[in-house]
Specification:
- The chain has 484 residues and is an alpha/beta fold.
- A 7-stranded mixed sheet has the order 14-17-18-13-12-20-21, sandwiched between helices. Strands 9-8-7-10-11-24 form a 6-stranded mixed sheet, with helices on both faces. It has a 3-stranded antiparallel sheet with strand order 5-6-26.
- The protein is globular and about 75 Å long.
Length: 484
């Protein structure tokens, strides 16, 4: 990215297979969260251009679906090759635009390359099946059912700011390999990086119209996209509030939602506290906690709480804080509004009697990693997802109390259980109402061949490469009536 203020680049949108400026003649400025300057402008696409892109997608999809799986896979593998060539450029863009340190940004791009290639291999190993009619009582052996998977049509892929490459590709690649066309709507903060990854896709020579990248104001094209009759499926990652709005607006089409979390770390009295503290700090503060799978609260047994908090304090105070260009662990939050929100949760907890163990210092949108002890259920931080570098410690008297507090949350993404007793771990894992339980490890998305899902306000539907391909296709039954 060019940091010279008077040479800020304006990026085109990718509409119907062409890079072009919007008919609106309007753009949206993208400001770096750590450079505190505009680093680029993206197009404010209009509703008629949305119509045009969806129509082109529908037309391109029919030919795309007729290609063999191997041929579609070759296009995707070329995309992975182009991403590899552009890895440093995309990682630098990611760092500048969303403030992730370069090492993490580079890791995200590499993970995405691996995901695209794995998606091709996974699809090649997914097969249909046949069913004999006489497998059911009274059924005729002359009926043979052939079950295959067919594409849904046009998939709307909406990605978030915090993983603008990986969480875009985890929607786009399964959709394309399954035979769908894609309308890609990146988060506004993250759209420059999204454009760069689609430039790589364009260089791979995909058929015109099979994917369009649409940037613009949510107020102008948000609901218009999600309610558009030409959209056949929506895959969304973002806030629970937006996810609920989406589910109300999208009628009678498949929907996969990856939303927020309030992931608890349940620490039993027999836990390995060094390993536990290491996992909790990495899980809570990586990328300043701007992750749905961050550890968002610690539920620790009274008997080991003092020792655990002391270990957490030491590790938190050793975290590097500052610019992502210096590979800092704690970087500025995505904008001032996000920092204000996190600060409000910290202030509420301290006003209500929480103990400040470390942190609570702020410089604009850069917050020091903050650790709060003696957090109680009347504090907002006990229930609300901060999406920032703050971790509340709630002391409990028993495993049952920890599970009860964990399950009171409206969220249900992941939970971590720290204990050296496997029976206890499995008992707690069975009791907590979440999509995934991590035993003696921090919550995280992946590996990408694992299913990834949330319950309650954390989402609906299941992701992970295999499951994403399933969610972006449907079964079709053909019955052969054989001669008697």
């Amino acid at each position: 990215m060019d940091s010279v203020k008077n040479e800020v680049k304006t990026y085109p949108a990718y509409l119907t297979g062409e890079w072009r400026e919007s008919q609106s003649q309007k753009t949206i400025a993208i400001k770096s969260p750590w450079k505190h300057e505009v680093i680029g402008n993206v197009q404010a696409v209009t509703q008629p251009e949305v119509d045009e892109s969806i129509q082109a997608a529908k037309e391109a999809q029919h030919s795309w679906a007729k290609l063999s799986l191997g041929d579609r896979g070759q296009y995707l593998n070329r995309w992975a090759d182009e991403l590899e060539e552009a890895k440093d450029d995309i990682a630098t863009s990611l760092m500048n635009e969303v403030g992730k340190n370069f090492k993490s940004a580079e890791g995200e791009v590499q993970r995405t390359i691996d995901l695209v290639r794995y998606t091709v291999q996974e699809a090649l190993h997914m097969h249909g099946q046949s069913v004999r009619g006489d497998g059911f009582p009274g059924g005729s052996k002359n009926k043979l059912g052939i079950i295959e998977r067919v594409p849904l049509g046009v998939v709307l892929a909406i990605s978030p700011f915090n993983y603008p490459v990986n969480l875009a590709a985890s929607k786009i690649a399964p959709a394309l390999i399954a035979g769908n066309a894609v309308i890609f709507k990146p988060a506004t903060q993250g759209s420059i990086t999204g454009i760069k990854m689609i430039q790589a896709l364009d260089r791979a020579g995909f058929p015109k119209g099979i994917l369009s990248l649409i940037t613009g104001h949510g107020s102008e094209i948000g609901d218009y996209l999600t309610e558009h009759p030409g959209i056949n499926m929506i895959s969304f990652t973002g806030s629970t509030q937006t996810g609920k709005h989406l589910s109300q607006k999208s009628i009678m089409i498949p929907l996969v939602l990856e939303l927020g979390g309030k992931d608890p770390a349940i620490v039993c009295d027999d836990a390995d506290l060094d390993k536990t503290a290491d996992n909790i700090v990495k899980g809570a503060y990586s990328y300043s906690g701007q992750r749905c799978t961050a550890v968002k609260r610690v539920l620790v047994d009274d008997k080991v709480a003092d020792e655990l908090v002391a270990k957490l304090k030491e590790k938190v105070e050793n975290l590097s804080v500052g610019s992502p260009v210096n590979d800092s662990a704690i970087v500025p939050l995505i904008d001032d509004k996000a920092a204000d929100f996190v600060q409000g949760l910290i202030d509420d907890a301290l006003d209500k009697g929480a103990t400040l163990v470390s942190g609570n210092k702020r410089d604009g949108n850069l917050l020091q990693p903050t650790l709060l002890d003696n957090v109680t259920e009347d504090m907002d931080i006990a229930w609300i997802e901060p999406f920032g570098p703050v971790l509340p410690v709630i002391r409990v008297h028993s495993v049952d109390q920890a599970v009860e507090i964990a399950n009171k949350s409206n969220f249900g993404l992941q939970a971590s259980v720290f204990t050296q007793d496997i029976d206890k771990a499995l008992e707690i894992a069975g009791a907590v109402e979440v999509g995934t339980v991590q035993v003696n490890g921090r919550p995280q998305r992946g590996p990408d061949n694992f299913p990834f899902l949330g319950v309650k306000a954390s989402g609906m539907g299941t992701q992970g490469v295999h499951n994403s391909i399933l969610s972006m296709s449907r079964e079709k039954l053909t019955v052969i009536n054989l001669k008697p």
